[in-house]
Amino acid sequence: MTWEWSAVADFMPHFWDGLIVTLQALVLGSLISFVLGLAWALLMRLPTRWVTWPVGAVTEFIRNTPLLVQLFFLFYVLPEWGLTFSALTTGVFAIGLHYSTYTMQVYRAGIEAVPVGQWEAATALNLPLRRTWTAVILPQAVRRVVPALGNYVISMLKDTPMLMAITVLEMLGEARLFSQQHFQFTEPLTVIGFAFIVISYLASLALRALERRLVH
Amino acid sequence: MSTDTHPPFEKKPASARSDGELIRLEQVTKRFGDHTVLDHLDFSVDAGKHVTLIGPSGSGKTTILRLLMTLLKPDEGTITVAGEQLFPAPDKQVREVRKKIGMVFQQFNLFPNMTVLRNITEAPVTVLGMSKDAAEERARELLEMVGLTEHLDKHPGQLSGGQQQRVAIARALAMRPQVLLLDEVTSALDPELVAGVLDVLRDIARSTDITMLCVTHEMNFARDISDQVLMFDSGRIIEAGSPEKIFSEPEHDRTREFLSAVL
Known about the structure:
The complex is a heterodimer. Chain A is mostly helical. Chain A has a single domain, classed as MetI-like (MetI-like fold, Orthogonal Bundle). Chain A has helices spanning 5-43, 49-63, 67-76, 87-112, 116-124, 129-159, 171-182, 186-214. The mean pLDDT of chain A is 94. In chain B, α6 links the parallel β7 and β8 (211-215). Chain B is of the alpha/beta class. Chain B is globular, with a radius of gyration of 18 Å. Helices cover 36% and strands 25% of the residues of chain B. In chain B, the strands form two sheets. Chain B has a six-stranded mixed β-sheet with strand order 6-7-8-3-9-10, with helices on both faces. In chain B, strands 2-1-4-5 form a four-stranded antiparallel β-sheet. The chains are: A mainly alpha, B alpha/beta. Chains A and B meet through α5 and α6 of A and β6 and α3 of B.
């Protein structure tokens, strides 16, 4: 095995393209999973089984089937129903949806961890239900779950290469394409391996900083 | 009186302090599973009175406060506050009637995500529709009364238990309740912090016309502030009277036993 810096240099323009796609998938996928997961968690608290049963069933189904299967399904089946999106849009949505079924459980735990005394104080002050959620319960619940959400961001990062399966050229896709064209595997794969470590590390630093800011 | 210079409390002349019944419980029963905590309880409190509920733990004192705050629902009976029914009643009416009632909890239950000031202004602004400035001015007056003006920008976690409880008292008073429910408000405090909280409450009892319902194990405090003491046992009021009578010459054996155990 030889290491050729010239191959690294040749790969870099492709690497930057892939990096941007990976980061797009990570950031947008995270946002979707954070928002959708919270929506699931709140819907599951409604007192009517007409909502909690379907939401519970659908999210359970999504959580217990492979992301890769969901990617293929959304990419190849939705167009047959007349719904056509770009590969990246489909991929971002699939990752966000898949992980929302995990983040919903994180939110649920965070909401349940808010002491019942907080609800009682809100009742005693006559705060409307909506205000109780937005001003009292959710700020405390979200603060508790930031570390757990952060772990899922790292997991999502490590799942972004699956987007390759639906033709999205993120970092691994670019590296594989480059390798096949130039028969140089070591350099591009090493470069993206380091890139994954660096992104994880920066993401965890950012999350730790966020945690510190939220803790009083 | 102009609205922006009002004192912390609207004082009424002493003659207006007892203008009839404010709270009435009729035939109220509350069960937890097989256990009957309150058994067809009847009692009423006149406006402006300070009533202390004493009795062994599990005798139903706290349950009464929690029923009045609508944190619990009775299984049977009716609860009326200021002539309006609190239970049974439609949600909208409950919200209206509940505005007359404030509560201070054993565990303070301050909102840890808000500053002291915001803890106090949150409900007046969002529930009563006060302007932020008016609510903050009132909060400052109340914090001065409880001796915590310098802490208004802190979060509850930065305060001692006694300080947190005094903030909780200010927070309840900010809503200008007619009734203040005090649920063992010093039980969770370190002994050296109890006096500061009780002093604040004595001050409120003396200088306002707020009706107070108080569950406490601080018998000296109960003797000082109460117009009436109710002795509970197994979900029933077994003896009621002035603090002098209850503490000096209790009629009931259970009362004597209880008092000799706690005094």
